[in-house]
UniProtKB/TrEMBL annotation:
InterPro entries linked to this entry: AAA_9, AAA_lid_11, AAA_lid_11_sf, DHC, Dynein_C, Dynein_C_barrel, Dynein_heavy_D6_P-loop, P-loop_NTPase
GO BP annotation list: microtubule-based movement
Gene Ontology MF term list: ATP binding; dynein intermediate chain binding; dynein light intermediate chain binding; minus-end-directed microtubule motor activity
Domain Dynein heavy chain AAA lid: 670-819
Dynein heavy chain C-terminal domain ranges (all copies): 827-1131
Gene Ontology cellular component list: axoneme; dynein complex; microtubule
Dynein heavy chain ATP-binding dynein motor region domain boundaries: 8-231
Name recorded for this polypeptide: ATP-binding dynein motor region/Dynein heavy chain region D6 P-loop domain/Dynein heavy chain AAA lid domain/Dynein heavy chain C-terminal domain containing protein, putative
Cellular compartments annotated: Cytoplasm, Cytoskeleton, Cilium axoneme
Region (Disordered): 297-317
Superkingdom of the organism of origin: Eukaryota
Length: 1135
């Protein structure tokens, strides 16, 4: 280590005082290679600038994107100038290699280095420093051998010390100033003592003869001793003063510690979404602003009086009780302000994540949450053994193996002893809770032993056995440990965000599907008088020069610059970063503001995000909010009120003729259909949250679509007289195919949109509205409008008839009530997945080499099956040739997967032992296994699957057994459709075999489907039927409805029943001409997995889609009902 004096000097040059940072500084100064510094908070940059910026020549700060970058490097190398290259990415310019590798050679009496094709004189005083703002860069091995990588990420201890200085500086400025003076004085005096000691040693070393006869040396030694004793006494006094100051400063440490924890959570949010970037300086400014805004109570002194304290005042007693009380109040204020400000830039789904992370961080600090319990939340069982009585073979029929494993692991922990006893002694009570208790009564009818658990331990239990309750229980934890206000979204105010901005601070709108803040921006600009002082541009190819000119003109003239869709123009983002960083106080008008809009994009510059003020813009929550928001567009409001007061002859007031064509004389009909269109738009948007039950893909419907639909509706009404019928056919086509359908790319979503459009816009529906025979809170319900209904009356009506429940009853959107269970499961799954991403730091290998990962890897490796036998494919055109070809191809694919699974596990185990290098891919495999997830390399060569690791591996072995049995024993009596890599190929092979047997074109054939009865299904599983045409297929599930085995048709789902297994199905290839389909049957799409979405194949359908089943619909229920329900068949479940 360096002497204390040098460490003191480093800390005065902005180096944090924690041990980790000091060690980094030692490496930085002592490394034989130039250093690549990971510096997301800019601490290393500040240290380099302070420590090297005062020398001669001065520090040169560059970016790789600078003009004349290499020319500046060449000049610095020649004159021995230190260089800091900041803001680099994961790669460096190859032209720097000679410098990084120090390829210096001696030529003609001088040291030279070859840069490009030019020999440059190399000055030994040259120093190079490289820094990146990336928190977890992926560096290639080639780069890592050229540089020394140093992680300067702020540590909790270092941040706590920095915040303590800021807090004391704001609260007791003179106290902090005295502390700083003491530190400087101590450092200077220690350096002086060190210099005296070195002087004495040098004099003794240079002395000749008898030193006792050397009068000059003796006098010098005596003077040094006197000076040293004097300095030591002064140093002792200063250190005593410093100790007294430290006692008072320590009173504020709880606030600094709380701030350190809060910033740690804020910094981790970037792992949930790359747009959530917040600089350390932002948080420091936030803390100081809270201190300045809160009322100053300590000692009854004002802030100005406190700042004017003298050194003598420092000796007066401190009212510790008053300070402690104020610190407690400030801790609450800092946390609330941080929550409110950060939430402004978070998507709705991440706000409860932020609250929970704050609560969990404090609970971990207070030992309410143990590391073992936190790992249980993120990892589940993950190879941990269950407790006695919960062995895998004892899994009850109402749990899957993953649930059972997680539950058994929890029951082995001390806090769950009562739950374990309850489960073993009262199994029927637990069975009933699983099978029969759903909806709002779940939390009210908890099994015995669960009620006694803390809210935190309930989170763990529900994550294991009732995942749909995790989100609700997390909210309870936040409410209990932080307060009710942390469970609510702070009110959004663009005015508040604008007040927090400056001319140096870009305002960044982070967009979500279906939102466009342009109208909000233009309205706000008009409100503040900037309607004529703004530049607006939608970014795209070749728009960079225009955008740059707008920014330069705006800076000079004090205008607002609004750049839309930054994510579209990725190649211009580096230039935009340069322009933002070039905004300086001296040459920028005070009124200038830069407004940016972007969807989440990893290409958006981190530096701009950290410098900017982030605001998310999302549609309002709930159907009511979306309908009100849709109706708020100016066209509707102005035209609506005008139509109320139209003359008796039906003509509109002249003032509103630009809003509605004069031909629209039946204003009551226009108002009724406008409200219908608004609710229709809200229903389409609300169904998105239920995906894939609602929609297979996410579509960005919003105000623009409503405006287009309103134009279509108005035009249609303008072309018919009051006595004429509404042209429903033309209207539904335009709305469902053009205005709203233009966004839809999935054919099954197109079908659903068509069904919903006809439900809202048809003569039958309109007559039901007029007669008042519709059922409230059901899809398609439109409240009747009073004869005289102003715009304000309309909004009040919307508030009265549309519930504000969150989430709303799914029946309002055409879905079954069980959809809310699926919704909450999805929210809970997403929440835990975000926690895992944050905990892994976006790929950090922390603790990935522990014994748990090795244990999981060994257990999986022991279960890896042998490779499947090779299947020879004969070149024949026989009827069985397609199936034999399919089998050969499937066996080859599974053998490739077996090889990858075995190789990756073996490589991981060797890497954990240190026998081979831990590559990035191996590190990712370790992380995946640690958190119970399937490694990416398995997915790349494997089949589509959404299962977690334990279920995936069981399913993998089952698939190998299915294909292996076919290879060894011949075709099965019934084919397990989930067992194929590509079920589509199997479906094609069966129909191709039949077409060959009949010698007809395959295009002339299609399937006839018959679902077998339970007895037929059991018989089909036992013995092959040689006379069977086609194939028996099993292993298919229905989602969104139930199945009546006795009656053989679709029925409504039972409460809590999200999926049901279908009996064996007979896939019978028949001639299209002979297949008379029942029009009352439901065309049910069959998918591989529940996500339903997939890449579009060459045929224009999703690669996840297999075939369309025709299933009977019972009790006269029309097929459109099941379309609205989102009913589909699946080959594999998610667990």
């Amino acid at each position: 280590m360096r002497p204390d004096a040098e460490v003191q000097r480093w800390t005065l040059q902005s180096l944090p005082r924690d041990v980790f940072s000091i060690q980094n500084a030692v490496i930085l100064h002592g490394s034989s290679r130039w250093c690549y510094m990971i510096d997301p908070q800019g601490q290393a940059n500040n240290f380099i600038r302070r420590s090297k910026g005062g020398g001669s020549p001065n520090l040169l700060v560059l970016k790789q994107t600078d003009d004349n970058f290499m020319r500046s490097i060449e000049n610095a190398v020649q004159i021995g100038q230190p260089v800091l290259i900041e803001g680099v990415g994961e790669t460096l310019d190859a032209a720097l290699d000679p410098i990084l590798l120090k390829q210096v050679r001696r030529t003609g009496g001088r040291n030279v280095v070859l840069l490009g094709d030019k020999e440059v004189t190399y000055n030994d005083a040259f120093r190079l420093y490289i820094s990146t703002k990336l928190s977890n860069p992926t560096l290639t091995p080639e780069l890592q051998v050229k540089v020394t990588v140093i992680n300067f990420t702020v540590t909790p201890e270092g941040l706590e010390d920095q915040l303590l200085s800021d807090v004391v500086g704001a609260e007791r400025a003179e106290l902090q100033a005295s502390s700083d003076r003491c530190i400087v004085s101590i450092a200077a005096q220690r350096e002086e003592i060190l210099a005296l000691e070195e002087r004495v040693l040098r004099m003794l070393n240079e002395a000749t003869g008898d030193i006792l006869d050397n009068v000059t040396l003796i006098e010098a030694l005596q003077n040094s001793k006197v000076t040293s004793e004097k300095i030591a006494k002064e140093l002792e006094i200063v250190e005593q003063t410093s100790a007294k100051i430290a006692v008072t400063r320590e009173l504020y440490r709880p606030l600094a510690a709380r701030g350190s924890l809060i910033y740690g959570v804020i910094a981790d949010l970037a792992n949930a979404d790359s747009m959530y970037q917040y600089s350390l300086q932002f948080f420091k400014n936030l803390v100081v602003s809270v201190l300045k805004e809160t009322q100053h109570k300590e000692d009854g002194a004002s802030e100005e009086e406190d700042n004017q304290q003298t050194d003598a005042d420092l000796n007066r007693p401190v009212d510790e009780a008053a300070v402690t009380e104020r610190v407690s109040m400030l801790m609450r204020e800092v946390m609330w302000t941080a929550y409110r400000v950060v939430c402004r830039g978070l998507f709705e789904r991440h706000k409860i994540l932020f609250s929970f992370l704050l609560a969990a961080t404090l609970m971990k600090r207070d030992a309410i949450i143990s590391e073992e319990e936190w790992d249980a939340l993120l990892q589940g069982a993950a190879g941990r053994p269950p407790c006695d009585g919960f062995e895998s073979e004892k899994c009850p029929d109402y749990m899957n193996k993953v649930m059972w494993g997680d539950f058994g692991m929890l029951c082995g922990m001390a806090p769950f002893a009562a739950v374990r006893e309850s489960f073993l002694s009262k199994p029927e009570e637990w069975r009933r809770w699983f099978r029969e208790v759903h909806g709002d009564s779940v939390m009210e009818q908890l099994p015995s032993g669960v009620q006694e658990l803390s809210t935190w331990h309930q989170v763990l239990l529900f994550k294991a056995v009732r995942p749909e309750l995790v989100h609700t229980s997390v909210v309870q934890v936040v409410r209990q440990h932080l307060g009710e206000q942390y469970t609510r979204t702070p009110l959004f105010s663009l005015a508040d965000a604008f007040r927090d901005s400056t001319k140096l601070t870009p305002i960044i709108f982070i967009l979500s599907p279906g939102t466009d803040p342009t109208n909000l921006f233009t309205s706000f600009a008009e409100e503040l008088g900037f309607s004529e002082r703004r530049y607006m541009l939608s970014l795209g190819q070749d728009q960079g020069s225009r955008a740059q000119k707008m920014i330069e003109d705006g800076k000079r003239e004090g205008c607002w610059v609004y750049l839309q869709n930054c994510h579209v123009y990725v190649s211009w983002m580096p230039r935009m970063q340069q322009l933002v960083e070039a905004i300086s106080p001296g040459d920028t008008h005070d009124d200038f503001r830069l407004w940016l809009t972007s969807s989440p994009s990893p290409a958006f510059p981190t530096a701009v995000l950290q410098a900017g003020l982030k605001v998310t813009r999302e549609p309002p929550q709930g159907l009511r909010g979306k309908v009100r928001d849709t109706l708020s567009i100016t066209t509707v409001e102005g035209a609506w009120d005008a139509t109320v007061h139209s003359p008796e002859d039906g003509e509109l007031e002249p003032a509103v003729k630009p809003l509605l064509p004069p031909e629209v004389t039946e204003t009551a009909r226009w108002r009724r259909l406008t409200l219908t269109l608004a609710i229709f738009t809200g229903v389409l948007m609300e169904r998105r949250q239920y995906s894939p039950l609602g929609w297979n893909l996410q579509y960005e419907w919003g105000a623009d679509d409503f405006a287009a639909g309103l134009r279509t509706l108005t035009t249609a009404l303008s072309r018919c007289k009051p006595e004429d019928p509404i042209p429903w056919k033309e209207l539904t086509f335009m709305l469902g195919t053009i205005d709203y359908g233009g966004r839809v790319t999935d054919m099954w979503d197109s079908r659903c949109l068509e069904v919903l459009t006809k439900l809202f816009f048809s003569s039958e529906a309109d007559e039901a509205r007029l007669s008042g025979s519709q059922t409230p809170n059901k899809v398609g319900y439109i409240p009747p409008l009073p004869e005289k209904c102003s715009y304000e009356d309309l909004l009040r009506l919307v508030d009265e008839v549309i519930p504000d429940a969150q989430p709303a009853p799914p029946e309002q959107f055409g879905l079954h009530g069980n959809a809310n269970i699926a919704l909450y499961r999805k929210r809970s799954t997403d929440l835990v997945a975000s926690l895992v991403r944050i905990s892994t730091g976006g790929g950090s290998g922390e603790d990935a080499g522990g014994g748990l990962v090795a244990q999981v890897a060994r257990s999986l490796l022991d279960r890896v099956p042998e490779r499947l036998p090779h299947i020879a494919v004969e070149r024949s055109a026989g009827a069985d040739a397609p199936l034999r070809t399919l089998l050969s191809h499937e066996a080859d694919l599974y053998n490739t997967l077996i090889g990858e699974v075995s190789t990756s596990l073996q490589t991981l185990l060797r890497a954990l032992k240190g026998e081979v290098v831990m590559t990035r891919q191996t590190e990712q495999t370790a992380l995946r296994l640690r958190y119970g997830q399937v490694p990416d390399s398995w997915h790349q060569v494997g089949y589509l699957s959404l299962k977690p690791l334990a279920s995936y591996f069981d399913d993998f072995l089952k698939r190998i057994d299915f294909i292996g049995s076919w290879c060894r024993q011949g075709p099965p009596s019934s084919f397990w459709l989930s067992g194929f890599f590509f079920p589509q190929v199997f479906v094609t092979a069966i129909i191709q075999s039949r077409s060959r047997a009949l010698v007809v074109p395959i295009d002339d054939m299609e399937y006839r489907f018959r679902v077998l009865s339970p007895a037929e299904s059991a018989a089909a599983q036992r013995q092959p039927n040689p006379d069977l045409v086609g194939a028996y297929v099993h292993g298919i599930f229905l989602e969104g409805c139930g199945w009546s085995a006795d009656r053989g048709g679709l029925v409504e789902s039972l409460p809590g029943e999200l999926t049901v297994p279908l009996p064996t199905i007979h896939f019978e290839p028949v001639l299209i001409a002979d297949n008379k389909a029942d029009p009352s049957s439901y065309e049910c799409p069959l998918y591989k997995v529940s996500s339903r979405a997939g890449a579009l194949s060459t045929t224009g359908v999703s690669t996840n889609y297999i075939v369309t089943l025709r299933l009977p619909s019972l009790d006269g229920v029309e097929p459109d009902h099941w379309v609205r329900r989102g009913v589909a068949a699946l080959c594999a479940l998610d667990a």
